[in-house]
Write a structure and sequence with these properties.
alpha+beta, globular
């Protein structure tokens, strides 16, 4: 049986339960449900709320859902917003490793004009050499129709939730109005591995030498490899930052929904004013997991320390600014929370998701179980034992990126521009849009493809 602990995004393979030998035939629903119950009863953070008399006649999906301590803003504000089950364990593990069938284009959906049912898509970024990139999509592009149908809040899900060839009709937003063009772009999704280390640059503004890096997901390496290629790419970027003598850093996590805790530890260790003896975060489990793990592994099982990195720039930083949004979650929030006891962290953008809990990937394909589970199993706390961000981190400076997007690294981007201002005290570019317009644009957002990544804002632990 495979087990993977997710805080942001982390995979782990461990045998915890001895499974009865069975033939190669697929499990029926009852057998699958029994397997689900056994694992949930042991691992689930809210195990005390699991019923002692489950209904095994349900479908596995409904059965899994029936065990959850579901979130309710009034009745259960401490409840579960993040556990999920996937019909294919293989697809679950691949997606957590950054591999999925996709066009290579991430976008947000907004009501436009505001206070109508009309929906448009705005491209957030495009994976290089992907079908979307080859079709000509770039950050900031706008599309209003899919397969010849104008998008509304009643049809956008059906139009976009497909892995078939799709035709997008492009549009322009100018002076607050939308104009649909005759330009169409056709894209067929393929299986892609996404490199999460997306963009980096260095700015020299007066006495400030500012490093900037865009990081889209906490993934150490390509799926089914063990070369730590993406972690090493970040190491190389920070080595360049160090050689450039930066004294400020802007970390762009606005589209980062989480990922592997190991990569979060690596990144935090590159920029924190910390030593290898400092605790990055603590993990709090249910009573049964705590007692079992304490006996087996000792106290060190329940915390992770920072690691020593020769590329660390923390001692050189006068400013650390992290760009955040309503899509920033899990491992991203773990980094913020873990660094706060050691240095000033300035957040620019929007309120984050508020995921201070971690999950594990549990699967057992060898014994005929096809589904994969991703239940919440732990809560995360920083060195000071603080974990008070379950409602999200409020930004120190609230800024909306709006609907007119600029290329990464362009100071006209409202979030980056504000970060540079916080560091230098000077606006690099003119601030043209009013606070009222920014608020309207922020309120108009309906959804985002980012929410589908990593199972929807998760973090997990290596084992």
């Amino acid at each position: 049986m495979k087990l993977r602990l997710l805080l942001p995004v982390i995979l782990l393979a461990v045998c915890l339960f001895s499974c009865k030998e069975k033939n190669a035939d697929p499990k029926n629903d009852t057998e699958t449900n029994e397997w689900i119950y056994t694992n949930m009863k042991y691992w689930y953070y809210w195990t005390d709320h699991i019923t002692a008399s489950p209904d095994y006649s349900k479908t596995p999906s409904d059965f899994f859902s029936s065990l959850l301590y579901k979130y309710d803003a009034t009745a259960r504000p401490d409840g579960d917003r993040f556990s999920w089950m996937q019909e294919s364990a293989k697809e679950l593990e691949a997606s957590l490793g950054g591999e999925s069938k996709t066009s290579g284009m991430e976008y947000k959906l907004v009501y436009f004009p505001a206070n109508t049912s009309n929906v448009v898509g705005i491209v957030l970024y495009v994976i290089p050499d992907s079908p979307a990139a080859k079709a000509g999509f770039v950050r900031g592009d706008v599309f209003s129709s899919v397969n010849g149908q104008k998008m509304t809040d009643s049809n956008y899900s059906k139009l976009l939730n497909t892995q078939d060839k799709t035709t997008y009709t492009m549009a322009d937003i100018k002076d607050g109005t939308l104009k649909e063009t005759t330009t169409t772009r056709e894209v067929t999704p393929i299986v892609l591995q996404e490199d999460p280390v997306f963009f980096d640059s260095v700015y020299t503004i007066g006495a400030s030498k500012i490093g900037y890096v865009v990081y889209h997901q906490f993934i150490p390496e390509p799926y089914q490899t063990s070369n730590k290629a993406y972690d090493k790419k970040l190491d190389a970027i920070f080595s360049e930052f160090k050689n450039s003598s930066i004294n400020a850093l802007v970390l762009d996590l606005r589209y980062n929904p989480g990922g592997y805790v190991s990569s979060a530890t690596n990144l935090a260790s590159l920029m924190g004013k910390v030593t290898a003896n400092d605790v990055f975060y603590y993990k709090e489990y249910n009573k049964q997991v705590t007692e079992t793990s304490l006996k087996k592994y000792g106290e060190s099982y329940f915390y992770d320390k920072f690691v020593s990195k020769s590329q660390n720039v923390g001692s050189d930083l006068k400013h650390l600014v992290i760009l955040v949004s309503s899509r920033t979650a899990s491992a991203s929030e773990l980094v913020i929370n873990g660094l706060k006891p050691f240095m000033t962290v300035t957040l620019v953008g929007g309120k984050t998701v508020g995921k201070n809990v971690g999950s594990v990937t549990i699967s057992d394909e060898k014994n005929g179980i096809k589904v994969g589970l991703q239940p919440i199993v732990s809560k995360s706390l920083n060195k000071d034992k603080k974990s008070d961000y379950h409602v999200g981190f409020e930004p120190d400076v609230k800024v909306s990126e709006g609907n007119i997007l600029y290329p990464y690294g362009d100071p006209r981007d409202p979030l980056l521009g504000e970060a540079l201002f916080q560091i230098t005290g000077t606006h690099v570019t003119r601030q043209l849009r009013s606070a009222r317009v920014l608020a309207e644009e922020a309120n108009a957002e309906l959804s985002s493809s980012i929410s589908q990544k990593a199972g929807g804002s998760n973090m997990f632990f290596d084992r």
